[in-house]
Specification:
2 copies of one chain form a homodimer. Chain A is of the alpha/beta class. Chain A has 14 helices and 16 strands. Chain A has 2 domains: about 250 residues, Aldehyde Dehydrogenase, Chain A, domain 1 (3-Layer(aba) Sandwich), CATH 3.40.605; about 140 residues, Aldehyde Dehydrogenase, Chain A, domain 2 (3-Layer(aba) Sandwich). In chain A, the strands form 4 sheets. In chain A, strands 10-9-11-8-7-12-13 form a 7-stranded parallel beta sheet.
Chain lengths: ~425, ~425
């Protein structure tokens, strides 16, 4: 109990200092922010040996704890990975500053001139797992958009994250920016997250990035608004009018190019009129790429080698070389399936029919809907929006890639000359 | 326990039907939605006697329960008020439909054409108190923006709200729109609100409108995103360079024109260099208008008749003919006071100094910041944005007047020609 209180006080102190840093950060010029980001990049490169040394402690502990090799890989830093982190900061520095942008300005009949201006959100609480490079990306995006950030990484990366946070704090101080703009919660006790989620007076937004249990817990416990980066159960629907060569390229890309990410395809829907021709072709390619196919009965009638899909498969995000496949009678059935089992993340149609393309775009309500392109394009860089802190599956505030603009809010500024309301 | 379960099931049923109605409503044309709104207006006028009759039951009950006369006035409907509700629906019908608007569209080097399109949020849960006309406004704005709405009004207005909801449901059915697009929770048990706040699978957004305890409870209990319409502790700062005639008009308007609303002024800050001249003038006007002044020591040294302000006054939303007044040494002190005690709602400076105007606009981080105009202008109609469902004090999703655009979210549509990711 006493320890809990001490922990709560420590988290409260961090949040209060973040709030105060955010007030100053909001009025700092773009040039100063960019210089600080470039300094961070330089210092990361210079301090690489220290960071690698402390990272090896985390990796050693992970090996002893017998974490999966995928997790250990994500945790491991190298010279190249540190260089990539530094280069990422320089890229963020080169993006336009969203803060202060007047989105619109108009004049009212009474002479008032009203403008809508972008301002920082304030203090962001960022809760994430394992990958230490995320620490740098998130800090860079928040500093650029004028937000203070409270970082809470996974306990398995605590040494790496602490080393990185030290470099960032030093750089901020050197650049004359408030050092508390980027703070890491270094207590690995999970109660620290609970304490953080109640500080709605000091933290304006929580962004959790990680597995479903983490996100579910955050949503349930938080009194602060949460923007989720949830699962992607993404579909590609091959229409009866599809160019099947194109469909094959798009499906293979969506499934195989990087299966462990949220915009990879998990379910393939094929119109019955082209199933006989398309399924054996794609099966051959998928098998060659090591993909396990789990099909509906009609799929298995055409490709008997495929495993049987259970009802659960349709709502499963594999993040792996596994694909569920279903034959549908119509575009209606495809859209209905996507609405029922999908996660409204990224869904695509392959079609040569103008009407079906338009209909799919209108009726599928996902954060990004594609015609004749791979779902893998749902990404801030690929959309031309610059670096992203994640892909929001929320419907509020922002939906899809969350970049610098999405890390801002707005205020109205009103220029008057003595107007009063009648 | 058994009753609770029954109540939960009833609320769940409403939310599920709203979700299904929202899917259909999202694809309905602007013309059909506008026709439905006009039909609602006609039917409200035609059914006025029925609505007035059921309203009188609520009013009678309120009188017996000895509610305040202000509350009874807000609850009471008249022919004129019903006409105003109907006219409001017709105004909403005449506003442009935000749904389907392509906000931007651009082309990527690989030939992908990417568009950002407005779509409805989905299902809105709206929790409000006493005024029955809010039922009509909220339903109208949601139907127009393609959202289904679950209404939960105060128990004191249950008969009036039920009568109005009946008229709306009939009108939707007559117009061929899904009848479940607008539903009222008719169980007055408060546990119904608790049940509603957990249905994040079916409800996308909760908008509470009412007193602080209601909003606090909603934020604490909800697993659904909440957009608050919280208190307005609004300031007017009279700078040393102010035109004092203008300052007088603006202050009187901000305080007196309608003191019971969130954008009315609660605290007046006056620069010490003009306090000797300005305070006696404004005191005279305020007194004549029946305003009670609570001043800091320096204010009372100039206007000894003023009552003494306690520290609590600076953070109090009076919503009444009461004003706290403080003399400040500088614009810095004014901005600092507003940041510390204000609610980031609506704040104004009266000044002839270009530099101070720009500084105030930049450093005061409120939903609307005014130069030489009354804070009372922070309003959807006054800003030229059309009808509003409230004024958001959130930093996420929308800030300030929340109209039709703010009741939408976005999706990306991507037109490809076979692109895959490298």
């Amino acid at each position: 109990m006493k320890n809990d209180r001490k922990l709560e006080d420590a988290v409260l102190d961090i949040a209060q200092r973040a709030r105060s840093a955010a007030r100053r950060l909001a009025t700092i010029s773009s040039g100063e922010k960019d210089s600080a980001l470039k300094l961070m990049a330089d210092n990361l490169r210079a301090q690489a040996p220290v960071i690698l040394d402390r990272n090896s402690t985390d990796v050693e502990r992970a090996k002893q704890a017998k974490l999966s090799s995928a997790m250990i890989d994500r945790l491991t830093l190298t010279e190249d990975r540190i260089e990539a982190m530094a280069a990422g900061l320089e890229e963020i520095a080169n993006l336009p500053d969203p803060v202060g942008e007047v989105m619109r300005m108009w004049k009212r009949p009474n002479g008032l001139r009203i403008g809508k201006v972008r301002v920082p959100i304030g203090v962001i609480g960022f809760i994430y797992e394992s990958r230490p490079n995320v620490t740098v990306d998130a800090a860079g995006l928040c500093v650029k958009s004028g937000n203070a950030i409270v970082l809470r990484g996974g306990s398995e990366a605590i040494e790496s994250n602490s080393a990185i946070a030290d470099v960032i704090a030093t750089s901020l101080a050197q650049a004359g920016l408030p050092q508390d703009s980027v703070q890491l919660i270094r207590v690995t006790d999970r109660a620290a997250v609970g304490a953080m989620l109640k500080l709605d007076e000091y933290i304006d937004l929580i962004i959790p990035r990680g597995g479903k249990p983490l996100i579910k817990r955050v949503v349930e416990d938080s009194t602060i608004p949460v923007i989720m980066h949830y699962e992607g159960i993404c579909h590609t629907y091959v229409d009866e009018s599809a160019d099947l060569d194109q469909a094959e390229r798009i499906c293979m890309n969506a499934k195989v190019q990087r299966p462990g990410v949220c915009n990879a395809m998990e379910t393939l829907l094929v119109h019955s009129r082209v199933a006989e021709e398309f399924l054996p072709r794609i099966w051959e390619k998928l098998s060659a790429a090591g993909v396990e196919v789990r099909g509906c009965d009609r799929t298995r009638a055409i490709v008997p080698e495929a495993a049987a899909a259970s009802d659960e498969d349709w709502s499963t995000e594999y993040l792996d070389l596994i694909l569920s496949v279903k034959v549908v009678e119509s575009i209606e059935e495809a859209i209905e399936h996507i609405g029922r089992y999908g996660s409204a993340h990224s869904d695509a149609i392959v079609t040569e029919s103008y009407g079906n393309a338009q209909r799919f775009l209108q009726e599928v309500d996902s954060s990004a809907v594609f015609v004749n392109a791979s779902t893998r394009f749902n990404d801030g860089f690929e959309f031309g929006l610059g670096a992203e802190i994640g892909i929001s599956t929320n419907r509020l505030h922002c939906r899809g890639p969350m970049g610098l603009e999405e890390l801002t809010t707005t205020k109205y500024i009103v220029y008057g000359s003595g107007q009063v309301r009648e």
